[in-house]
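In the laboratory, one determines a bound structure by crystallizing the protein with its ligand and collecting diffraction data. In a computational setting the workflow is compressed into a single prediction: the sequence and the ligand go in, and a structural description comes out. We illustrate the idea with NAP.
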Amino acid sequence: MTLPTTARLLFTSDLSICRILNGMWQVSGAHGAIDPARAIAVMFPYHDAGFTTWDLADHYGPAEDFIGAFRRQFAAERGAERLPEIQAFTKWVPHPGPMTRRVVADAIAVSLRRMGTDRLDLLQFHWWDYRDQRYLDALQHLADLQSEGKIRHLALTNFDTERLALIIQHGIAIVSNQVQYSLVDRRPAVKMAAFCGQHRITLLTYGTLLGGLLSDRYLGRPEPARGEFATASLQKYKQMIDAWGGWALFQELLAVLKHIADKHGVSVANVGTRYVLDRPTVAGVIVGARLGIAEHIADNGRVFDLTLDADDLTAIEPVLAKSRDLMRLIGDCGDEYR
Ligand SMILES: NC(=O)c1ccc[n+]([C@@H]2O[C@H](COP(=O)([O-])OP(=O)(O)OC[C@H]3O[C@@H](n4cnc5c(N)ncnc54)[C@H](OP(=O)(O)O)[C@@H]3O)[C@@H](O)[C@H]2O)c1
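The predicted complex, in structure-token form:
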């Protein structure tokens, strides 16, 4: 299988990405036991199919080490000159505390070492508490490290529109914000997307498949009990569904999506991914990959052959209209973490 050219996007002037990114939270240990050798071996089929872009974080268990090992094997087998074919977007999620140059530089040095590179493609920064304004210090130091060549591009994750605006006002160049965005959680459409559009910032989305709940597998299934879920991801997004409108409404949504999926000869997951990929300012959808446990390479590839038409969007709207307003209930992007 090879992905069509529409699968790729010039994310920045110097980085082309696959618009479905492989999410590596799923190797952290909270989504089933991962065999490192097997996981690294299956990164090759993703890459060879065209899924060349990885999303990870300093705190996703061995994810950064897996990228390091994958890069080493890739260079040994195919030549180091081909390493730029791989894009690896990590995050720094610091514990609250002083954000001196030393603290920031040390954290970035760890990611560089683990990932086996001398420059991070994208560093996505997370912050837990807006009352502690030292996130601006941290970002200034990150910008300095960027100008020294240690980071190619700076990005954020889970920042709200208000703080994103503040960061921009401080003259820090941000290329993207990673936020939860799905047919269930459409908060980014309220404020974030318009702001990003005005400032040439893009969105990378997670939770688009609700940990796998937004798939054929859960259509017609009775409401799962809390203890039934095998992954942290499923638990997280079941709570989101509960806040949004509950299991019965979610089943209505899945039924409509199934109808659309059948019409186009694709899967429910494909419809959910395509819907978010088509939203303004969305650069890519991150789909979690339980490497070596369950792969969906061929199915996710079909997203790029799918076009949702006006009838499809019209069919979805009445179900979404019955849901609660998550912006009012939770707040802007990322507020669920604060
Ligand atoms: N910035 C943040 O705060 C944040 C938070 C969460 C996640 N993330 C990022 O986003 C990534 C995605 O994580 P997520 O928790 O949001 O999970 P997700 O992508 O919504 O769900 C991943 C799960 O969906 C299932 N799946 C994938 N493709 C499928 C298909 N074609 N058909 C049916 N099922 C399919 C798989 O389940 P099975 O494995 O069971 O088959 C997979 O484990 C993470 O790895 C991470 O990189 C970031």
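DSSP finds twelve helices and ten strands in the chain. Keep in mind that any predicted model is a hypothesis to be tested, not a measurement.
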